[in-house]
Design the sequence.
């Protein structure tokens, strides 16, 4: 630890959190990663709604993209995909 | 004011208001609930959050996962905080100083903050008739502090303060019928929802925001850690709870009960109703019920669920 941690004088009044959580990558929690098979996907977007992280993004083209920076590998998407288009692979 | 029709295709493209990078557990039900609720918002929104998993894990200093104005004060007073925000907005509007035409106020509370600690604040806010939406994400115990039983823990669930063993088979008391208590407050809108049915959930949230006056939505949020199941089954648990009628989906607008979604189908075709055992045996917190000497407790739970379901059916017919 080279960087000095902020003391009480440096903390904003009221302890207001000021950094977006996107700066904190939770992807390294993962043991299994979900992998999408684009051919099987029928764009029902259920995985997007079931993902606790919001790590499954719907692109403008309508395709789905998994953001491995944040995916914690809970595998809800793999379990719920009605077409079996997602597969779990060990990291 | 009942405006646009919600559809999954459109909502999928809406930007999440709960950002990724929050530190709720993998497979957390509360995270899914919060994301879905925030997806259904219709415009400028302020969120107040009671102490609990959601508050602690989404705002670990200096990070925040909320892309809306957000406030946390204490465990017991989220409904009062939300009331104050609503009253303040009203005063600003009266003075012509409010930039927006309307600002929605949402209060999030877990089962500890709703059933136990914050109950009087909610009751007061609803009696005063503040135009807020209270969202209860119910993970059925104090999960954040290590799975202590709460008023929302179902009967015979094992928790760290009601451990199943030789003396007791888990919690001995019934789950408090919180949403019926809220209906009794004669507020315009009360509903229950499950994250396994996202469109149903988001429609109810939107309806809760649209009504004038307080609204209450009770959402089941399965907890892999506290309920003891693999994180990948969170949505399956939320679905089984509805299919077994442990957690039926209904809404009550101005006190008129109405079943929705799968629960309505089950009422029409009772054969669809699954035995409660299917829900219980998937969770470690009910594992002790499946030993020979405790088997009769499963039948007792089935009886309780059936009675409550029949009562709900009667309420729907009456109104």
Sequence:
């Amino acid at each position: 630890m080279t960087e000095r941690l902020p003391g009480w004088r440096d903390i904003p009044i009221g302890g207001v959190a000021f950094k977006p959580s996107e700066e904190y990558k939770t992807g390294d929690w993962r043991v299994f990663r979900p992998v999408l098979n684009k051919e099987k996907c029928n764009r029902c977007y259920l995985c997007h709604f079931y993902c606790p992280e919001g790590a499954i993004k719907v692109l403008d083209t309508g395709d789905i993209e998994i953001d491995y920076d944040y995916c914690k590998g809970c595998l809800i998407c793999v379990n719920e995909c009605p077409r079996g288009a997602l597969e779990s692979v060990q990291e | 004011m009942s405006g646009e029709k919600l559809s999954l295709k459109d909502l999928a493209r809406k930007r999440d208001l709960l950002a990724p990078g929050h530190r709720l557990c993998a497979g957390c039900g509360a995270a899914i609930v919060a994301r879905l609720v925030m997806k259904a918002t219709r415009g400028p929104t302020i969120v107040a959050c009671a102490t609990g998993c959601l508050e602690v894990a989404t705002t670990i200093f200096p990070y925040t996962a909320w892309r809306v104005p957000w406030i946390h004060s204490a465990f017991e007073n989220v409904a009062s905080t939300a009331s104050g925000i609503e009253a303040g907005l009203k005063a600003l509007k009266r003075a012509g100083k409010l930039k927006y035409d309307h600002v929605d106020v949402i209060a999030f509370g877990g089962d500890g903050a709703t059933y136990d600690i914050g109950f009087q604040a909610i009751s007061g806010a609803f009696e005063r008739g503040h135009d807020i939406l209270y969202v209860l994400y119910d993970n059925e115990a104090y999960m954040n502090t290590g799975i202590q039983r709460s008023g929302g823990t179902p009967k015979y669930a094992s928790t760290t303060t009601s451990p199943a063993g030789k003396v007791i088979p888990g919690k001995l008391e019934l789950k408090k019928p919180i949403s019926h208590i809220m209906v009794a407050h004669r507020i315009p809108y009360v509903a229950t929802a499950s994250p396994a049915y996202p469109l149903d959930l988001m429609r109810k949230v939107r309806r809760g925001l649209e009504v004038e006056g307080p609204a209450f939505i009770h959402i089941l949020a399965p907890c892999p850690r506290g309920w003891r199941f693999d994180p990948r089954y969170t949505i399956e648990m939320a679905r089984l709870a509805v299919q077994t009628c442990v957690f039926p989906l209904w809404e009550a607008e101005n006190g008129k009960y109405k079943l929705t979604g799968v629960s309505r189908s089950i009422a029409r075709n009772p054969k669809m109703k699954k035995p409660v055992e299917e829900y219980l045996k998937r969770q470690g917190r009910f594992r002790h019920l499946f030993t020979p000497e405790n088997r009769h407790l499963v039948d007792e739970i089935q009886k309780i669920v059936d009675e409550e379901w029949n009562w709900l059916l009667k309420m729907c017919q009456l109104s």
In short: Chain A touches chain B at residues 11, 15, 17-26, 29-30, 44-46, 48-55, 58, 60, 67, 69-70, 72-76, 78-80 (CB under 8 Å). The longest strand of chain A covers residues 32-36. Chain A has a mean pLDDT of 92.
